[in-house]
Design a protein that fits this description.
Elements lengths: L1 E9 L5 H19 L3 E5 L6 E10 L2 H8 L1 H4 L13 E6 L2
Length: 94
């Protein structure tokens, strides 16, 4: 089964450049290690709300656990807005 991941969160405005660097580093490592290529978007009416998209991902429980480890090692959580967290939505084609 192929999954599409949509992950959204709010970043602290003062940390936007750092967050971008972390997301770029994580997406690069993920692509190199797994072949999964991500995209980064932001809301057109709110520059602090960002979304990562990973489409067509053939991923099992073992790979899912491994992929979540990229974020803590880059210190990502420290750059989000105080009242935000990463929300992950998974969709499949039917």
């Amino acid at each position: 089964m192929l999954l599409n991941y949509y992950i959204y969160y709010r970043v602290a405005p003062a940390e936007a450049a750092r967050v971008r660097a972390v997301v770029d580093a994580v997406q690069s490592a993920l692509a190199q290690d797994t072949g999964i290529q991500g995209r980064l978007l932001r809301r057109d009416d709110d520059a602090t709300t960002w979304m990562e998209i990973y489409e067509g991902v053939a991923i099992g429980p073992d790979s899912r656990r491994r992929s979540t480890g990229y974020w803590p090692q880059h210190g990502f959580d420290g750059y989000m807005a105080a009242d935000s967290r990463r929300h992950t939505e998974r969709f499949v084609l039917f």
